[in-house]
From TrEMBL:
Gene Ontology MF, one: transmembrane transporter activity
Domain Major facilitator superfamily (MFS) profile: 28-460
Gene3D superfamilies (UniProt xref): MFS general substrate transporter like domains
Localization (cell): Membrane
Annotated stretches, region: Disordered: 230-264, 523-557
Keywords: Membrane, Transmembrane, Transmembrane helix
Extent of Polar residues compositional bias: 251-264
Pfam families in UniProt: MFS_1
TM segment ranges: 29-56, 68-91, 103-123, 129-151, 158-182, 188-208, 280-297, 317-333, 371-394, 406-428, 434-458
Assigned GO CC terms: membrane
Gene name linked to the record: 107361763
Name recorded for this polypeptide: Major facilitator superfamily (MFS) profile domain-containing protein
Length: 604
């Protein structure tokens, strides 16, 4: 066991992982599967409403002119409740934990779907299918995304893409299954069978163990040494949104358990107000709800639109096409967002432009093939937009604020979600077709994309400012001594000043600034005597106002989700046994890299 003084040191010995850590690694894949199923069931049911809408319209039609409006309002209430309660869901998650919140949500959602099968009027469905089912799935959705940050510190965009692809897979399957069940049995018996499907959410909830549950088995602190290539940062506790005194795990880090003080702090800070002082988040939280006014118009009304212009056509296949290409988009763009030079905000802007354009083009599509092509484009960039919600939130507010950042933006999007489909239904009742419904539904994504433009310019200004601060503090690299002169030794403060959003943008400037000094340093190391190098890298060798330099080759596993960036040691790490406790990677691993750490400055 290591004492506190050993924190930040990497042992040369790499033994086998303990059974405890092996279980932790295995559980990560169970979390992916459970989150995949959770997202799939929730949005598979929501996106299948277009099929349900046609049958409800026939079942409850009473000859009034607003039949389309009142029937589409059932699905709109479901969507509105799901997303309006996202902020509340995030707060409940922070207070009671991810697993408990998800389990309760699964139970309420199952109850809502089951009671909907006994509804005798459209107004009863507003309560059971709209409110009760919506609130239940809302308690499940946000936790299913937040739990990913507890287990994955790298490739988060790809993991988000895999998980959110679940909704695409289920969107491909459920509309067809729902139509088959309705035709074979009845409308309401199909809803009862769907309630069994939704009950799977409670089973998924059981796998959502937060990482501290693996490490905190008693009131005393416990230490774990983890193999260098398998490091993961611990989460603080149930609350992801507040800074914690707990140390993020590196090799040999001491992990403390839940304490009364941390529990009291969690209760006192249910809402993270710091994200609302972030101008970048404010721009994003304004643009996304505006962009999503017409988001669900194709999902709800495309089946009916296809049957109107092409009688006898298979409208369910159009929804399936959206789901299939959406899954492809989530996987592809999720992986693209992990590339350090790619700005997820820009990708989300492109997605909104494509979604808006394809929605408008539905008005002129008169053939089934053209409808399929437009659905493929819509679905591809729908997957792009959805898979970037997590990465954008993490890049703007960091890991500590991501849970509530996503919750609030989805909560504010609830009203636009509710307005779009009923307005489209109203325009259909008024005009007898969906021309104006799809035309107006495609405008909001364009407006949202325009509002996001200042975010990128602010990012670049922050990058330039942080570069100047770094230049002022770093001093000059003295190649002859292998030390950094003029550095005050306060690396942790320096690292925290460079936020996760800026660090990815500053890399190109850092490269040009330090490249020449790095080559000169490499030349000196090659011509220095081995004893001199050993002397300079010795842990007990210190100079006033100087920090040691040693060679370090990080692998590609990094995560820009918080103010501290995590780098997993590889087998190519240096032999100095010095490992940074808090590090900030300011360049790509494949290029000359500058690493700011608490106890040393490394240039590779």
């Amino acid at each position: 066991m290591h004492n506190n003084s050993s924190i930040g040191h990497c042992p040369n010995h790499r033994g086998r992982l303990t059974d405890h850590i092996k279980n932790l690694l295995t559980h990560r894949y169970l979390v992916i599967l459970a989150s995949f199923l959770t997202n799939g069931i929730i949005f598979g049911v929501i996106n299948s409403f277009g099929v349900l809408y046609v049958h409800l319209l026939t079942f409850f039609k009473n000859g009034t002119k607003d039949a389309a409006f009142s029937t589409s309002l059932v699905g709109s209430i479901l969507i509105g409740t799901t997303f309006s309660c996202s902020a509340l869901s995030s707060i409940i998650t922070d207070k009671f934990g991810i697993r408990s919140t998800t389990f309760i949500g699964g139970f309420l959602a199952t109850l809502g779907m089951f009671t909907s099968s006994f509804s005798s009027s459209i107004y009863e469905l507003y309560i059971t299918y709209g409110l009760l089912l919506g609130f239940g799935v809302s308690l499940c959705y946000a936790p299913s995304l937040v739990i990913l940050g507890h287990y994955f510190t790298s490739n988060l965009g790809l993991v988000n893409g895999i998980v959110t692809a679940g909704s695409s897979v289920f969107t491909m399957i459920l509309p067809i299954c729902l139509k088959m069940l309705i035709n074979r049995f009845s409308l309401f018996f199909a809803l009862r069978l769907f309630s069994l499907l939704i009950s799977v959410l409670m089973i998924c909830a059981l796998t959502f163990k937060e990482k501290h549950e693996f490490t905190n088995h008693s009131s005393t602190s416990t230490e774990y040494r983890i193999k260098d290539s398998e490091q993961f940062p611990t989460t603080t506790n149930n609350n992801n949104n507040h800074h914690s005194k707990k140390t993020h795990s590196t090799v040999g880090t001491k992990i403390s358990s839940n304490s009364p003080s941390s529990t009291a702090n969690r209760k006192q800070n249910l809402i993270n107000y710091t994200i609302w002082r972030n101008p970048l988040y404010l721009l994003w939280v304004i643009s996304v709800p505006i962009a999503l006014v017409g988001y669900f118009v194709p999902h709800f009304h495309l089946v009916k639109h296809a049957s109107d212009i092409l009688p006898g056509s298979n409208g369910e296949l159009l929804v399936t096409c959206i789901g299939a290409t959406s899954g492809i988009g989530r996987l592809v763009f999720g992986q693209i967002s992990d590339i350090q030079s790619v700005n997820p905000v820009v990708l989300q802007q492109i997605a909104l432009l494509a979604i808006g354009g394809s929605t408008m083009l539905f008005t002129i599509a008169k053939s089934y093939v053209l409808l399929l092509i437009l659905c493929a484009i819509f679905g591809l960039f729908d997957g792009c937009f959805v898979s970037l919600m997590g990465p954008v939130a993490y890049s703007l507010v960091g890991k500590e604020g991501a849970s509530q950042a996503i919750g609030f933006v989805l909560g504010l999007s609830s009203i636009p979600f509710m307005l779009g489909p009923p307005l489209a239904g109203y325009l259909y009742d008024l005009n007898g077709d969906y021309f104006y419904a799809f035309l107006l539904g495609g405008l909001p994504p364009f407006i949202g994309a325009l509002i996001m433009i200042p975010i990128v310019s602010i990012q670049r200004r922050r990058a330039n400012r942080s570069l100047k601060q770094l230049e002022a503090k770093s001093g000059e690299i003295t190649a002859t001594t292998g030390t950094i002169n003029g550095f005050d030794g306060d690396c942790s403060a320096m690292a925290t000043e460079i936020d996760p959003l800026t660090s990815s943008l500053i890399s190109d400037n850092i490269k040009s600034h330090f490249h020449d000094n790095h080559k000169l340093y490499q030349h000196n190391q090659q011509n220095s005597h081995p004893n001199d190098l050993h002397h300079n890298n010795h842990p007990n060798h210190h100079h006033q106002h100087q920090q040691q330099i040693s060679c370090y080759k990080p692998n590609n596993h990094l995560h820009n989700g918080s103010n501290h960036h995590w780098i997993n040691n590889s087998n190519d790490a240096d032999e100095s046994n010095n490992c940074p406790e808090n590090v900030s990677l300011l360049n790509k691993p494949s290029q000359p890299t500058v690493i700011l750490c608490e106890n040393q400055f490394k240039s590779t």
